[in-house]
Amino acid sequence: MLKDILDSIVSKFTEKEVENVYSAFDAYPVEKKGDLFTVVGIGAFETAPPIYSQFTVYLPFKTEIEVNTTAKRDMSMVELYNYYCDNIEPVIMDMADMNCTVRKMAVRYDSNIQRLVMTVKFEATGMSKMERSTV
Amino acid sequence: MSTVTEITSREAMPVTVGGCTVYCDSFRVSAVRAVNEETTVDGESVITSSGLRAARLVFSGRIYDETHPLRFLTDISSPMSGGQAYTITYRGIRFTGCILQKYELTDSCRDWMEVSLTLITYSEAEVIQE
């Protein structure tokens, strides 16, 4: 379920031709991800009681998607913001509706790799469908 | 002293009224006897008459339907307008002579809709013999 959610978000970025976007499940080393790369992961996930119908059981879920953009080594904050405005924001705003909203955006300095990382968290809801084996 | 700890399991059970089926998350039933209470000349109270009112059964559930989310409304319109008596079975209990008195559907901007059916009956609940 988590993999499906992340794959669908990553595909929205690739549709808009944003380069170097990876799912948290892609275990590439940082060096191979490109100078400027974005990783889509899940920060929180919860489900509600299932909804039953004759042939299907629906499992509603709510999840917090984390989009982490890691800047190039000598990239300034201004350049990182520009990259966000030009590439990341349009994709997120395309998804925005009553069920999908941006909750938080933050920039921090990752001292391990000595690069700026911008994190955008947005909340999304969805439904997972399971066919009933017995009716 | 012995202790048994187990994980419980429960599924929503279907309730069918005419051509409308609702998978119920919750169920509430209530019955009341209406009484007529008068004051005597000594200042005491006395019940002069009483009568059993119809029991009220409220079935509530959630609906998620991808293709026709509001199909419930067309399914329920015939039992609602006809006023026929239905037999309702739910978790091993049968209620006969149930009239659909009220239905409610709420779409509060979530992925599902909340519905409830209120039925009234004068009949007593029966245990379904297996």
Describe the structure.
- The complex is a heterodimer of chains A (135) and B (130).
- With 135 residues, chain A is α+β, with helices and mostly antiparallel strands.
- Chain A has 2 helices and 6 strands, in the order H-E-E-E-E-H-E-E.
- Chain A has helices spanning 2-15, 77-95; strands at 21-23, 37-47, 51-52, 56-70, 101-110, 115-131.
- In chain A, strands 1, 2, 3, 4, 5 and 6 form a 6-stranded mixed β-sheet that branches.
- Chain B is mainly beta.
- Chain B contains 1 helix and 9 strands, in the order βββββαββββ.
- Chain B has one helix at residues 71-82; strands spanning 13-17, 20-30, 33-39, 45-52, 55-63, 85-90, 93-106, 113-121, 126-127.
- The A-B interface holds A 49-54, 58, 60, 98-99, 125-127 and B 11-12, 14, 21, 23, 25, 62-65, 109-112.
Secondary structure topology:
The complex is a heterodimer of chains A (135) and B (130).
Chain A: H1 2-15, E1 21-23, E2 37-47, E3 51-52, E4 56-70, H2 77-95, E5 101-110, E6 115-131
Parallel strand pairs in A: 1-2
Antiparallel strand pairs in A: 2-4, 3-4, 4-6, 5-6
Chain B: E1 13-17, E2 20-30, E3 33-39, E4 45-52, E5 55-63, H1 71-82, E6 85-90, E7 93-106, E8 113-121, E9 126-127
Antiparallel strand pairs in B: 1-2, 2-5, 3-4, 5-8, 6-7, 7-8, 7-9
Keyword list:
heterodimer, A: 135 residues, alpha+beta, 6 strands, B: 130 residues, two-stranded antiparallel sheet
The geometry of chain B reads as extended
What percentage of amino acids of chain A are in beta strands? 35-45%
Low-confidence stretches of chain A: none
Helix/strand class of chain A? alpha+beta
Radius of gyration of chain B: 20 Å
The best one-word shape of chain A is elongated
- Averaged pLDDT of chain B, please? 93
Identify the most extensive interface between protein chains: A-B, 13 and 14 residues
Along the chain, the helix and strand elements of chain B come as: EEEEEHEEEE
Estimate percent helicity of chain B: under 10%
Characterize the main sheet of chain A: 6 strands, mixed
* Individual helix count of chain A: 2
Strands of chain B, total number: 9
- CA-atom Rg of chain A in angstroms: 17 Å
Could you list the spans of chain B in which at least 5 consecutive residues all have pLDDT below 50? none
Q: How much is the average pLDDT of chain A?
A: 89
Structural class determined from secondary elements of chain B? mainly beta
